[in-house]
Write a structure and sequence with these properties.
The complex is a heterotetramer, with two copies of chain A (165 residues) and two copies of chain B (160 residues). In chain A, 21% of the residues lie in helices and 27% in strands. By secondary structure, chain A is of the alpha+beta class. With 160 residues, chain B is of the alpha/beta class. The termini of chain B are far apart. The chains are: A alpha+beta (165), B alpha/beta (160). At the B-C interface, loops of B face loops of C. The complex binds adenosine-5'-triphosphate (ATP) (2 copies) and magnesium ion (2 copies).
Chain lengths: 165, 160, 160, 165
């Protein structure tokens, strides 16, 4: 087991602070079209350091902040916290539990945190090095992109293998 | 570094071939270095032949066959280099009922190595899950996590 | 030619808005000329706001919402300029059960204008069809057309 | 009603001469993954003049000829015949029924026919002009491509509107 929980607050359609706990085995996330399932996947990629607004389906990074709805005003910031179980020591940290978080304010100010302490994106990437987890990892398959490996040109596929090797 | 890549590649190759046979109930697949003399830089070629069919370019495969081939490759990578978790967003969208069964039984096989989060509209995939989260928008535009009831089940998963 | 395009565009626009509201059960959509001063050459912008949600870039829409928006646009084009037939290959793949219902009832609405051939894995879409063709590969690698039985139906389609 | 029937012979996985009749209303084509459903869609596009092997998922045009199977030898040619009901006079022809056919031999020799008479690709295109039917028409949506209209750049979408206008 590795992922413990994710908390979304003001991230895309998750206006309210929402928590998902993950256990061993298979967790299925279900619901009608447009209810927010893929937004949870975007949240994982965003908190792990995704820099491209486009790959999160937006035009600008501010697009990940809850934009309001008929009944709600827009949020002032987006925050995601992702907590890992590190008892197997896979992450480069001495802690048994590691929480990565990211917050983005409307002003454009943004911050990464590792177990509550401000850090740089580089520190998050270092933490995940060699785990097969991370923004470009083969371990997150986005909607509609399952055939990407087959379509990618032969050199494009290399990256997946190098990541794994 | 060259040997390390070559070893990892051989392992992925073996696992891919096995996963392909499992998911297709037979057939043959391979993953090859386009230029073995230049293993650290050359492209990677994928060969996939479903059972009883003539080997052809993978581009000619059907939508569902492409999905299964990719899943086989990914599971091959996982087995040789276990990733702690995988998030699969509607990966079963192109699969027919029988292949959704096979896909889910392959996931089951990996549970000692990995943790899976799957997003799906398939009742079969839901039924095979250990935990089910429902997401709704009772209040338009605002996502909310909630419990999910699932009738017609013999063994009920933990509903979170 | 400029007026002819402008007229057709207005018609498609009106139909698109109506079809969108039908498929989403509300909300608002629009299709606009990026440069009205240059109608024969400028790009075309699409706006889509599902009911209760804030208008945003269509890229942020979900997989199923994108499918419905495209279907609305296509049906909008059909209504203003009926195409004698349409072939839709697994267009319902990303849709949940409720939206598959709406999709199929919209197809029904078009039957006076158009003829549809749909490829699908959805039992619901099959149930709404007038005729069902099954394709199989009993002999591996060789496609064969055959009859399809479909239990649990109130009104059975013609099985060809 | 417009499409009457299609006959595939040696086209992709349809080794044997196979006929599909179309009536008014909705015809659903169903079957397991890889059984040949999308190949029927490819057949319609091919007989109407598709020139790109790539857009038919092949590398070369010869890839549409039945390549053989465990139990069958490869075919020597691929042939598709598509018959239209023309009583509404939508096609540029005086006939009540119009059949377009295309054959491709392993040698590379290829032929189009209109109601049995050899013709050029140009004649097929002329027949379909202004009907909203044809290789680039908005009326054929291939597997996995339903969102294309939304992704296409704003100028790319124009083509659809111009085809329809
Ligand atoms: N910043 C934001 N503020 C508010 N809503 C947003 C924001 N970004 C995206 N959304 C909304 O989130 C919705 C899409 O959510 P998501 O892609 O997670 O749906 P989904 O559950 O995966 O659906 P599907 O089953 O169709 O794939 C869209 O309706 C979009 O308008
Ligand atoms: N020239 C050919 N000769 C023999 N078989 C071929 C040829 N071209 C394609 N095929 C086979 O046709 C199959 C794909 O068929 P098709 O794409 O129609 O499947 P499908 O029914 O649409 O499946 P899905 O539900 O997964 O989309 C592939 O297995 C491919 O190998
Ligand atoms: Mg989604
Ligand atoms: Mg198909």
């Amino acid at each position: 087991m590795f992922l413990k929980r994710i908390i979304l607050h003001g991230f895309k359609s998750f206006a309210d602070r929402t928590e998902f706990e993950f256990g061993a085995g298979v967790t299925a996330v279900v619901g009608p079209n447009g209810c927010g399932k893929s937004n949870v996947v975007d949240a994982v990629r965003w908190v792990l350091g995704e820099q491209s607004a486009r790959s999160l389906r937006g035009d600008r990074m501010a697009d990940v902040i809850f934009a309001g709805s008929r009944s709600r005003k827009p949020a002032g910031f987006a925050e995601v916290q992702l907590t890992f179980d590190n008892r197997a020591g896979l992450l480069r940290s001495d802690e048994d539990e590691v929480t990565v978080s990211r917050v983005l304010y409307r002003s454009g100010e943004s911050e990464y945190r590792l177990n509550g302490n401000a850090c740089r994106l580089r520190d998050v990437r270092e933490l995940l090095m060699d785990t097969g987890v991370g923004v470009d990892a083969y371990s997150i398959i986005e909607q509609g992109r399952v055939d990407l490996l087959l379509q990618a040109n032969p050199l494009g596929r290399r990256e997946i293998f190098e990541e794994a090797a | 570094s060259r040997t390390r890549f070559a070893e990892a590649f051989e392992q992925i190759r073996a696992q891919f071939q096995e996963m392909f046979r499992k998911l297709f109930g037979g057939g043959k697949a391979d993953v090859l270095l386009e230029d073995p003399a230049n293993p650290l830089e050359c492209g990677i070629e994928i060969i996939a032949r479903p059972p009883g069919k003539e080997p052809q370019s993978i581009s000619l495969l059907s939508g569902g066959e492409k999905t299964l081939t990719t899943v086989a490759l990914l599971m091959g990578v996982f087995k040789s280099r276990p990733s702690p978790f995988a998030i699969l967003d509607e990966v079963d969208a192109a699969l027919d009922e029988a292949n959704i069964e096979r896909f889910n039984s392959v996931l089951q096989e990996f549970l000692s190595h990995s943790q899976f989060v799957v997003i799906t509209h398939s009742k079969r995939t839901m039924a095979c899950a250990d935990v089910l989260y429902g997401v709704t928008m009772e209040e338009p535009g605002v996502s909310k996590r909630m419990s999910v009831r699932f009738e017609e089940r013999v063994e009920t998963p933990i509903v979170a």
